[in-house]
Design a protein that fits this description.
Helix content: 55-70%
Shape: globular
Order of helices and strands: HHHHHHHHHHHHHHHHHHHHHH
Number of helices: 22
Pfam family, one: ATP13
Family: Belongs to the AEP2 family.
Largest sheet: none
Structural class: mainly alpha
Main location: mitochondrion
Subunit structure: Binds to the 5'UTR of the OLI1 mRNA.
Distance between the termini: 92 Å
Function: Required for translation of the mitochondrial OLI1 transcript coding for the mitochondrial ATP synthase subunit 9.
Length: 487
């Protein structure tokens, strides 16, 4: 049953078909599992998966986040009555549904997930024991509700989970990685996607962040570094953020040039030899843009310091996307951005783009195509009517697509045409017809693209001549009226 629903939702946009009877299918499947749960052997069937018997999540390798689930999946998934296998299937398909893309009209999806959790909660209410799969599923529900902006529901699931075992977030070495992350996201402001979109999203447990900072530095763990940085940024605790980043990676986010580790004898000084991962550097950039009126300037200082200390820092496309998108954000508070703010944000986005290009050129790396970066830069270039930078961006960012022309999708094609037509329109307006045709010759993706662009040049040329003729006629009429009145 669950596999049928997953296939159905994968092939049809759930947000566009709210009348799909998904909850009915869910009920049918969960009731079949519930029948097994009524047997007295249910708890015994999960006894091999109890959290208490698993290796501590807090001691797992940083690459194995959510170690409790990893441990249980190493164990046999089937028992003599097959209950464990059924429950594992439930968990697997819950993962698949939770990872589905949510459309603009998400009402149907929200109702479905609410129904899934109600059924799930009712199904497992007969036992207060917490096994690894249940721990995993409840964290999946929390992160999914958070992604949908359902803060109240996410809080309810978190409270249900902590009632079962509060040591998941407060238990020192027995902390569970996924649960701590969800706690930071829900109660400590670490979920940056809600910073600008939901005014009700506030920090309710700042003390937990302070305690976790010291715990992470003392133990040398890095499982929730990214969430700590976002939480400190949301709380505007820049001095603590500066101390955390300096002690851990030897980098400053407050005082340019202060890159030496502190002298605390807490065992954390050796951490400064490790380069921060891409998700951490992206988080720092986003926080700096949030905290400072001209965050891009602070980001540039941090970027120079990062590259200076770690020349081989793995700055992936997510980092550059964050730098360009956040730098180009004209206004971060209530109200409407001024013209000056728009102008500054546009220049910041272009500065970030130039830094991205220079970084790749100096390392002989091909600039990766990223739709969000290309779209944001087009918004800036169109607003500024900047032909020179538009040609530079197009011939650099889109170059990688010319090696995989058959794989360009519809959304990419639409953006390609926007860039191409903008460039050609400006060239025709400047009467640089030779350059326009040379651009078409060199930068057409295929024969059809070339044909469309050649017709576009012809249309723009005729349109320009028509406007010029109309203007000449209007000038002649105006002259005749003036001369007529004189004579």
């Amino acid at each position: 049953m669950w596999w049928r629903i997953v296939q159905l939702v994968h092939t049809q946009d759930i947000s566009e078909h709210p009348d799909l009877h998904i909850t009915m299918i869910i009920r049918s499947h969960t009731r079949s599992i519930a029948a097994h749960f009524r047997l007295g052997s249910v708890v015994r069937s999960f006894s091999s998966c109890e959290v208490a018997s698993l290796p501590s999540a807090g001691k797992a390798s940083p690459s194995k986040r959510g170690g409790a689930l990893d441990a249980v999946m190493q164990r046999p998934r089937s028992t003599s009555n097959g209950i464990s296998s059924k429950y594992a299937d439930f968990s697997t398909h819950l993962d698949q549904i939770a990872n589905m893309k949510i459309g603009a009209n998400k009402t149907g999806f929200i109702k479905t997930m609410d129904q899934v959790y109600r059924e799930y909660r009712s199904l497992l209410s007969q036992s207060e024991s917490l096994n690894a799969l249940r721990l995993h599923d409840m964290n999946v529900f929390i992160s999914t509700f958070l992604r949908m902006g359902r803060l109240k529901r996410a809080h309810e699931v978190l409270e249900d989970l902590l009632r079962l075992d509060g040591t998941l977030v407060q238990g020192g070495a027995s902390r569970d990685v996924a649960t701590v992350r969800n706690y930071l996201n829900l109660r400590c402001g670490a979920y940056h996607r809600l910073w600008y979109s939901d005014r009700s999203y506030e920090v309710t447990d700042a003390a937990y962040v302070y305690e976790l900072v010291e715990y992470s530095l003392q133990r040398g763990v890095s499982w929730w570094d990214t969430e700590i940085i976002y939480a400190l940024g949301k709380m505007n605790r820049l001095e603590l953020l500066h101390s955390f980043v300096l002690r851990k990676w030897g980098l400053s986010v407050q005082t340019p040039g202060e890159t030496q580790p502190t002298t605390e004898t807490d065992g954390s000084a050796d951490l400064v030899n490790k380069c921060p991962p891409p998700e951490v550097t992206s988080a720092i950039v986003r926080v700096l843009c949030l905290a400072y009126a001209d965050g891009s300037m602070e980001c540039n200082k941090f970027l120079n310091e990062l590259i200076g200390r770690y020349p081989q820092a793995p700055l992936d496309v997510n980092f550059w996307r964050t730098l360009i998108m956040e730098g180009g954000r004209a206004h971060r508070g209530a109200g409407v951005a001024s013209k000056a703010e728009h102008a500054t944000s546009n220049e910041n986005a272009l500065d970030a783009w130039r830094a991205m290009k220079q970084w790749h050129v100096m390392r002989n790396r091909i600039l990766p195509f990223d739709y969000s970066i290309a779209q944001e830069l087009y918004r800036v270039l169109e607003h500024t009517n900047d032909l020179q930078n538009c040609v530079d961006v197009y011939t650099s960012v889109f170059a990688s697509l010319y090696t995989q022309r058959n794989e360009v999708d519809g959304k990419q094609w639409a953006l390609i045409y926007r860039y191409q037509k903008f460039i050609l329109r400006r060239l025709v307006n400047k009467q640089q017809y030779v350059k326009a045709r040379l651009f078409v010759s060199e930068w057409s993706l295929n024969a059809n693209n070339k044909h469309v662009l050649e017709r576009f040049i012809e249309h723009q040329t005729n349109l320009k001549k028509s406007k010029e003729a109309t203007q000449t006629y209007d000038d002649m009429v105006e002259d005749d009226m003036i001369l007529g009145s004189l004579w």
